[in-house]
């Protein structure tokens, strides 16, 4: 399937036209201009020649089923064309025609029909209202003919055609190369995740190592998750935008492609779990892709070596790198000495290496050679920053840079700042395959996004003492809110600890309570225990307990005493909510005011890996409080991690759980107990 | 002075040369290329003609003292040239020559000498190691001749010459216009704040309304503050970068211009108090300047109307606007109806108005007219977003836009996204004075920076009960840490409340204690009160107090009892630290763990205005806790504000205070007391 998308042996244009202001005409022109090596079939009721190519009067007259068929006829004729294509055995159909779901319910109904027909015949349907596909091998897209795609470049799968063009113009101005553009239009049948799955299924050694995506709604979150994780493991990093996440944005998205508002917390958790670098603007997406193109798979490391020809931008770069958590370690004595031998007095030797504006090609070659020889063990990336002072030929310098980028043991990431005065040498640099940033601060931010990208974790498949069978038995036939007793039993069967408790009707039983002081004693029998003074906390020894027993039993209707372990310590909350399509979102935060007033909560999609749960905990702002302040012992983070993993397992195994709340979870060190809990199932 | 900088009637180039690869030669060429209307005097020992202009063999031979003299001779001859210029009466001298402070201590000494000579003769000295000045009237700068400046554009004052060129290239590519570039090089005598002061002193009705600055060190924070605030009040907004604020950045800055590390908290507080919009990259500075150029002084408002020709970018824009706190209110029924009359089916009518890619000039004119008529009362800004679909002539659309930008009742801010395919129409748009963003998300962020810019507050000059004379008397001859007693008296004289306390030697005195329960009773006499059980808290009534009195007086060495009002409630800390050159940095934060573990503290430079103090309080992350959670009353924010104002007054009136700490400040509602305090003076 992927091969037929990227390199079809035959393409049919249904609705081809001489008039290039019509989609069908523009599309034909683009395919012809770009040059397509296979068979191009044009279909137009009038037949004859269109743009110099023979046109068939109808689909049934085509000599073969095209690998790829594109429909550009008016909306009312689309269904018939699709059916005819199905009849001759077409398997990929792209509907460029507009006039469907974006116009209202009528159009929505019609595009649903198209999807049903396509699915029935095993056809992959893109669109309607879609601008097409463009790859290194063909330009089946009715906008943006100016683009020149390169095999092995970046794949861009987009829910918005305009976004492809607008992003590509910026990207290409800076030398980013693309393997394919694929737009899904209204996603009547197939959305971005479906296409990602096709790219993943067809992934091979020559496939692109970088994929970028734009979505306004995630039509199938689970498919997105699976495809992105799989691509990631095969060595293809994915970055993307999910727009329409605010009130104004989702209203705009609704009128654009009919996308529905989704909970952005779930979207973020999805991207994180999928290992997809999430950004919110075209420029940021270009920047992240630029880093990925420069580093060629070497995506980790914190130590940066800087070469520049100007002080100020070097300072701003060093500042931003520091802010983003990178290090800019000073060059050692030997590097400084070697640089001093080739650079003039006044040059900076200390990282940044400030080569001064008088730098030329031959000297830059020496500087880069010194760095490539010296920095490979102690640095992870070289950032190269160059303006045009007019004092030397910048193309000489870029040529040296291009050579170094190919042979350097660590990635070199360039920022070219003289966008006007270096216009000609920069064009030459792009022509030899060079790519670059135009601002050093954005470079640092994009590098940080890549290095600090979400990692893929393998979820735990079980845990010691986690008793799936028992839970299953307990959950049988449950609906709505579980009783406190069943809640407790379910969670205990999942390995979650509760404070000890025992119901006594005999005072002598106090001697055999199987847990330590302090205790809480609660009278059994009376309905409103607190109102009648029936709850006593902080019982620290047996004699106090016995005295309290006597007092409690004097209360009217007292039938016995509930003895509970009294838990002190820090409070956290752990919860899980089901988000349709996404699975369960597990939440972790500090209890009480921290969650209520400070919104200091972290989320991740279940099921969780141990490290993943650990990252949730480490990411709360109030982590210091969790670890213990002012001599308090705090909570053992591994124990919390273990509880999170168990909750992730529980909601994954029992998706009927709609809501789950452990609040508070309380304790010190490893002695962490769930004091109160609530589970709602449906 | 400013007039002579911007429009000198005569310019002298000392070290003029035929060789344009030398600064003196390049500079001469730039001045000639740009065209200078006054007298240009070249000086070169060889005399003769240089670049077609007569050269004088020496400075004394010049026919008059030039308004502006630029020195481009080798470093060792600079001092002599300066002295000769001083002798003929020059008042502005720019030293372009490098080879001074940036090379080490020797050069530092030499440039200090230059500064002394200049100051002695009342000369404004720029440089050394400075790339010069460029204005709408002359191009006295040895780099960047390509720039075309426009009277009334933006003033850019920079501590880095390369940063000017690099920023300007980006800015001009997008149509930003500049009034002047001024670089200060090593700032031997005059730095960015000094130049700002000159621009402020010479500010007139024709002056620029926008100033941008780049600094690696703030040579004179107080001058920066004064000039920026004064410019702001005159209608000129200032935005700027202070680089070199991280460890790596300040090392880079040190090797660039010898800037020293400064406390970034103080820098941020300085920018805030000065009303200067602070950014950290060239691009962000261009973006903020772009907003200011578009909005022509209308810098407030939250409600955005959007016009676009493409869905996706409209969604990303609406998202970012929402995230930045803007509103994108839906168009009302009348606007929707009027838009529907001119736009094709499928167009979005609901804000964003999505005009679809088929939009052309005449239709866009109608759309903009509708919006200009309808939105002026309900919206504050129009954001206009346009790509190039190839389906119509974009220049037609830009021409309509240009016209609308001139006559619209509310500012129109454009984002032009097809940077390659619209190259020609965009050039035309810039030629008629148009300017634009290239990314809608960056537009939203920059607009937010402008709308949410730091405001200028007038500090309070006094407060009820603030007794400057008494404090002055108390502070007389004080050094080091003040005693608890003096600390209390000083703060009380400033109007800060302490909990009541009274020393009693007679039990009967308990009846007349002038403050309410609860009390703390502390035995007087014994050295380590706590160790001997001499501190009793939570005394709630007189009989308990009398009983406790008896117990305390039984303690060995007891000589009496200190009765203190016991304060309950929320805890905050208030402090002040002197930062050399900046004045005092006043700090406010929630007490205890919030300050220690969560670093939730806000800072502002003293003296404070009431609203300014209010903003500090409102800006802490834990504000909800301060206001009271779970039914607790919280603290009265105005009372806290009042304490902050008093502390600001105190440290401003008594700059010998090096450190001041009120920790904790405690209470509920308006009853807020300083429980413990510390003042160190020098």
Q: Could you please describe the fold and organization of this structure?
A:
The structure is a homodimer of 682-residue chains. Chain A is an alpha/beta fold and 682 residues long. The first copy, chain A, folds into 5 domains: 1-129, NAD(P)-binding Rossmann-like Domain (Rossmann fold, 3-Layer(aba) Sandwich), CATH 3.40.50.720; 146-297, Rossmann fold (3-Layer(aba) Sandwich); 301-451, Succinyl-CoA synthetase domains (Rossmann fold, 3-Layer(aba) Sandwich), CATH 3.40.50.261; 500-565, ATP-grasp fold, A domain (Dna Ligase, domain 1), CATH 3.30.1490; 570-681, ATP-grasp fold, B domain (D-amino Acid Aminotransferase, Chain A, domain 1, 2-Layer Sandwich), CATH 3.30.470.20. Chain A has 23 helices and 30 strands. In chain A, the strands form 5 sheets. Chain A has a 7-stranded mixed beta sheet, with helices on both faces. A 7-stranded mixed beta sheet of chain A has the order 9-8-11-10-12-13-14, sandwiched between helices. In chain A, strands 20, 25, 26, 27, 28, 29 and 30 form a 7-stranded antiparallel beta sheet that branches. The longest helix of chain A is centred in the C-terminal third of the chain and has 17 residues, at 637-653. Chain A is flat. Chain A starts with a helix and ends with a strand. At the A-B interface, helix 5, helix 8, helix 10, helix 11 and strand 16 of A face helix 5, helix 8, helix 10, helix 11 and strand 16 of B. Chains A, B: This is ATP-grasp domain-containing protein. Chains A, B: Pfam families: ATP-grasp_5, CoA_binding_2, Succ_CoA_lig. Chains A, B: Residues 488-681 form the ATP-grasp domain. Chains A, B: Keywords: ATP-binding, Nucleotide-binding.
